[in-house]
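--- STAGE predict ---
source: upstream dedup step, 1 unique chain passed
mode: sequence only
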Amino acid sequence: MRDGLPRDMAYHYWRDVHSTLCSRLPGLGFYVQQHFDRDRTAHLWPAADGVRPMTAMLDGAAELGFASVEDQAVFGEASKVLYADERNLFSEAVAYFLPTGSITFVDREEDGIRNGPDRYHRVHVFMNRRPGPDATQWVQDTSADLAAHAAVQKWKLHLGMPYDNANPAPPSPDVNHFVEDDRLNVAVAEVAFENARTAREFFAGSAFQMVLARQADHIDALGARLVTGFYTFVRDGKPTTAGIRGSRPAQLIDGIGAINQVTPEIAARFVRQ
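--- STAGE serialize ---
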């Protein structure tokens, strides 16, 4: 978050103000924020000898998806107002391009539009791949193997294109977009377990230990971040209640059971053009 800005204020702005602006932009098919715990870093994901710890302070991740290249272009043209807003809450913002999208190997979650504290022990694993295609193939193959384990509730893999500091992204003014070597060729796995105990048991198992033994051959830096909140603002091209009204108002609507607030008649009053 932005240096000098109270953390709670920045997080609330991101999930209730910045999010609703983004959700209203044309072309957007999918939009999720996941907020990270800055203080919890121990025991989240084992790293092999020879793999450096990724030291960047990361407050969260946003995932944006599009149904087509044409929709992405429409969003790109409209998103100038969004990127101009990022200076209000971010000191740094970095966007990785996924030309073929992400790979979901398993997803046992019942709530496709989750909005609130994460009930899972969910970790984002940032792996900086060594040069060459072998590392990417290894990350994909081992993800497929490990995702088959019964303890894994979700495994989603993002294989981003290498980041180019000469062409910083996103184009947010007054926001840092420089990436150090440990994050130039990142693959990110979103992995969820029922709790921390089942995660630790998974790490101790033979399947994970076999992967760990080869980790340093393909990964030169690794960092893991624990997710505290999971917020869905756009799904299947349509803003959720959180996307229309803001995340916390949506939680209040659900908590009180205000079914009138989610009727088309009322929702239309918040999305008039």
